[in-house]
Amino acid sequence: MKTLEQYTVVSEQKSTTILIDNTSQQKSLQSNKLFKKGESIAHFSAASTLEKPTYLTVQVNTHTHITLEPSYLQYVNHSCNPNVFFNTTTFQLVAIKDIMIDEELTFFYPSTEWDMAQAFQCNCSNNNCLQTIQGAKYISAHILKNYQLTDFINKMLEHI
Predict the structure, then answer these.
(1) 81: exposed, middle or buried (C-beta count within 10 Å: 0-12, 13-18, 19+)?
(2) Domain residues of the chain, as ranges?
(3) Which of 67, 64, 77 has its CA nearest to residue 46?
(4) Quick one: fold of 4-158?
(5) How far apart are CA 62 and CA 65, in angstroms?
(6) How far is residue 82's CA from residue 76's CA, in Å, rounded to a whole number?
(7) Which candidate, 82, 100, 91, places its Cα nearest to that of 147?
(8) For 65-107, how does the pLDDT look when each residue is reduced to its tens digit (9 = 90+)?
(9) Bridge partners of 92?
(10) Which pLDDT score, from 0 to 100, does residue 1 have?
């Protein structure tokens, strides 16, 4: 079980805190207030727009990948059992479950990414962990139906 001593506060925003794990040096974004399922956590916009993905972008459509503004949202890490969703139609980060104080905010990367710039091994330890994360393109529709997906990803799935 993780304890607060394992983390150092990097910065605090209105309703979230960026933490750094003192062992792994990985940064994460934690809630410092309660959020109810369906509640908007933050509005976001494009700090920059790129034609190709990077490990820091969120895909909006086929050739549009954005870096997030506010930039602290880049610390929302992946989980195969996420609690937030980046809605790239409304540009809102939304709670998809009730979120407690001190809970890490996580999203399902393939919910926004069709073909990621860098695949990685997931270590979320959830029962439904997909292990290798590389984008929605590589996941069966049967599995993806269990996740909230952006309008863009849903359109891409219609064309398969």
Answers:
(1) middle
(2) 4-158
(3) 67
(4) Beta-clip-like (2.170.270)
(5) 8
(6) 10
(7) 82
(8) 999 999 999 999 999 999 999 999 999 999 999 999 999 999 9
(9) 43, 87
(10) 40
Q: From CA 82, how far away is CA 95, in angstroms rounded?
A: 9
Nearest of 94, 128, 131, 135 to residue 113 by alpha carbon: 135
Q: Which amino acid is at 72?
A: Y
149-to-48, 91, 113 alpha-carbon distances in Å: 22, 13, 9
pLDDT at residue number 24? 87
Predicted local distance difference test score (pLDDT) of residue 2: 52
Q: What is the pLDDT of residue 123?
A: 87
Q: What is the 3-state secondary structure (H, E, C) of 134-147?
A: CCHHHCCHHHHCCC
Q: Are 125 and 147 in contact (CB under 8 A)?
A: no
Give this prediction's pTM: 0.92
Q: Encoding tokens for residue 155?
A: 């359109």
